[in-house]
Amino acid sequence: MQQLSDRAEPISAAAYWELLMNLTWREVKGRYSQSLFGIGWAVAQPLATMAVFTIVFSRLAKMPSGGAPYPIFAYAALVPWFFFSNSVASGTLSLVTYRNIVTKTYFPREIVPLAQVCSRFIDFFAASALYALLMMYYSVAPGPWALMAPVFFAMLVVFTVGLTLATSAMNVFYRDVNPVVQIALQLWLYLTPVAYPLAAVSDRFRPLFVLNPLSAIVEGFRSSLVFGRAPDWPLVAISALITFGLFAAAFTLFKRMDKYFADVI
Amino acid sequence: MTGPHTPIAIQLDRVSKQYRTGRSRTIADLVGSWIDRLRGRRDEVHSASRGSVDATIHALRDASLDVPAGAGVGIIGRNGAGKTTLLKLISRVTWPTSGIVRVAGHVVSLIELGAGFHPELTGRENVYLGAGLFGLTRREIDRQFDAIVQFADVERLIDTPMKRYSSGLYARLGFAVAIFSNPDIVLVDEVLAVGDAAFRRRALEALRRLIAEGKTVLFISHDIWNVRRLCSQIVWMDEGRVRAYGPAGEIAERYMNEVNIEALANQATALQRHRGGTGEIRYVSVELLDDGGRPVTMVAPGDTLVVRASYHAHRRVSRPVFQIAIIDVDAGLVITTASSAVADGPAAGGDVLGDGTIECRFARLPLRPRQYVIRLSISDSDQLASYDAVTAGPRFAVTSRRRGVDGLADEEDGLVSLPYEFVHHRAVAAAAHRQR
Description:
The complex is a heterodimer.
Chain A: H1 13-32, H2 40-60, H3 70-97, H4 99-102, H5 111-137, H6 149-173, H7 177-190, H8 206-210, H9 213-227, H10 233-257, H11 261-264
Chain B: E1 8-21, H1 27-38, E2 46-47, E3 51-52, E4 55-68, E5 72-76, H2 83-90, E6 98-103, E7 107-110, H3 123-133, H4 138-152, H5 167-179, E8 185-189, H6 197-212, E9 216-220, H7 224-230, E10 233-238, E11 241-247, H8 248-265, H9 267-272, E12 275-276, E13 281-289, E14 298-299, E15 305-318, E16 321-328, E17 332-338, E18 351-362, E19 371-379, E20 386-390, E21 395-398, H10 428-435
Parallel strand pairs in B: 5-9, 5-10, 7-8, 8-9, 14-21
Antiparallel strand pairs in B: 1-4, 1-6, 2-3, 10-11, 12-20, 13-15, 15-18, 16-17, 16-19, 19-20, 19-21
Helix pairs in contact in B: 3-4, 3-5, 4-5, 5-6
């Protein structure tokens, strides 16, 4: 017989992990079932955007792409970008979407927004596979710096999870958070060096870009995969600091608020 | 079974829970309430555009409770008495405003069956998802999988997306997943209302087995009869407080008495509500009496019940037909009687004007220990025009023959009791064997 406890029942790490995997699976399956093109849609989004960007920014605006073919230059940034923006967009709504289980069963609440982020992994890797094909098509060979890509991916995930935890928790209390987030994501794309290189940003605006962790992440992916060179280390350092700071703050906020989710959702 | 050495499974120590209603949902509301506060208005003030912002509801007030491990405990009370809040606090879905909730062991809550299921996933995938929500690992689910599928009786559809399932099947699988999740404590909230009678029976049977295995089951139901079949103890919740906690038979009877007394007190208004008909002639009062003419709300099986109703006809009504029906609160219509159907009924012939009384006598009431409500109506002789219809008249309960004993016997299940003889013809071979 167990002891009486006034704390929430601890769920074993294995069960916790499996619940995350199950919710992730539920999310992926729900998104792509009964669709003919299936996972293909995960690739279509960055690919179509790449095509539009190539016409608008490269052909019409003559945007420099640092010597690399513009499509591959844009695509290398669009894949992490869409991972981020799709995760945050659906993650913000996740606790409200899953109110059914949040108000009816106990489990660590952070699993819900986490599953949203995890469900985008599959999109990310599908789109990455296409990136490999693009590299072959444009005869861009990966160099040793490509080994840095997982580091930037880790930063991307930590930043995305941190932001999603914060926005999903706040959206439980104030539904205004969601429209704000959706609009912010639209603008954020253009305030991040996705369609253009960070080098093209004038010095006056550069501090703004340095404070945006996605600048370093997106540029990092590019330097390691497209250009095969070392990243801008000071930029990466600042970005990592902000990323982990945000994550810690967001997680603390989330755990403070999660006791009240079921009451107000 | 609740001796001094029985360990406690659930302990509530002066627990209160407040909810804020009309809580600011948008920034505009929030700013609005700040402005109100700055202007010095009180929180409870109703504002036309926002409703009352920040009003609080006390869902639970200073509730204390010790539930011994291995007990089947029913939770009864009116809507809004705090029953569901109690379960949500125990399951850690929500947290108390003050006080402490202590729980020993793995809690599985059945506040809604199959709450975690996704309609696009197959039954199989949902079993893993649902059991995962209850804290089981894949390997543990593997071990229970066959039992779950067998209990829910979904072998045939287990690899079909659950959106193709009927609601009953959905509930069955949800229930099966929960009870096979190795719970120490099971919380059940009115979920047996869904699903068919066969499922209800099986579910009750399964819960009973869990109790027999030493698990603790908390069971919310409006069906006192089901509560008594399952539970040895009852918690009576009233306006957020624990009104009483004790042996099931005793508490159920006290509760039923109060509900009935209230129904009697409110009879005048109750008769006005749920009222139909054109109104030329109407019932004025309805009484339930025993054999000796005393008012009753509790009847033992086999007792006599008299329904006496007085009426008033505003204008002359030709050959009205008075009808009295007994409705089982859970199962529906049991019997309808009509004044014209009985040869010497009080108003079988002739016109009616002014006041009068009718009486319908049920000798040796063949009813099961459940709750009933009387429905009354007056119509014309062709039963085409309805003068009056009281859909919810007085209530009464039939008590169990096994008063004070835990649970109810299966022989008391079913709608009515009929006189029967039971004969057992043994096979010839067996008889021959005995002779040898």
